[in-house]
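User: Hi! I'm working on a homework problem where we have to compare a predicted structure to a textbook description. Could you give me the structure for the chain below?
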Amino acid sequence: MFAIIGVFIVLGCVVGGYVLEGGPLGVLYQPIELLIIGGAAVGSFFIASPKSIIFGTMKKALKVFTASEASKQTFLDILSVLYTLMNMARRDGIVSIESHVNKPDGSAVFTKFPSVLKNHEVRDFICDNFKVLLAGNIEPHQFEALMDIDMSASHKHESNTPNAINKVADSLPGLGIVAAVLGVVLTMGKINEPPEVLGHSIGAALVGTFLGILMCYGFAGPMAQNLEYQVKETHSMLEVVKSGLVGFASGFPPMLAVEAARRAVSGQARPSFEELEGALKGGQK
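Assistant: Happy to help. Predicted structure tokens:
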């Protein structure tokens, strides 16, 4: 939502300021300049990226406009899932959670918290690591190291999209100059034309530089930054899960293990102890 608002603010302030200064809007309408800059940017992106990055970026770029920020309730849901599974494992034995972690889509635990079920990275991280505990005894420090490896691999993979968009953003000012130079070349062919024609042609050429810089710093760069924040947010969720699972593997009771996970939540999204206790009691009803 805020990304869409930001787009309108950028366009409104830049174009609105230009109009307030008496600039004619028609001069900014240069579809060929957009074709040169946009087409070259897409082409360079295809040259630089393997197929998996290309399709992954196309899919994930939309999250700039559709993704919502993790809230306190998001973390309460994660903590509730952890507590429920840990409590079942402690009360009925670790084997009692096998069906839940093997098939989370059909699990009464996960379906009760759709925000966790829909977040594939967090859901799979929870399930995969409970499966490790199901597989046999593992020392807590070894378990933590295993989760760190998983988180590092996930972070590298998820960072591919913002990194790819950043590369495109970095190329846009240069491609804007390319479009401007081509416009100057065309202008030189009109050197015998009246000053009015030359002025219009030079102005159209300079729009290329303007568009390249605007697309870089007004849109592509901020989009990459937004996706980087989303990657960090997902990583922070995995840190919360890891803290709880390490506590459980170390022998903490479920409530203390979940409390360790709660303390891994940073900022305003961290629920208080009372809020966590209330959510867990409500989930048991």
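For your comparison, note the following. The chain has a mean pLDDT of 92. The chain has one domain: 29-285. Good luck with the assignment!
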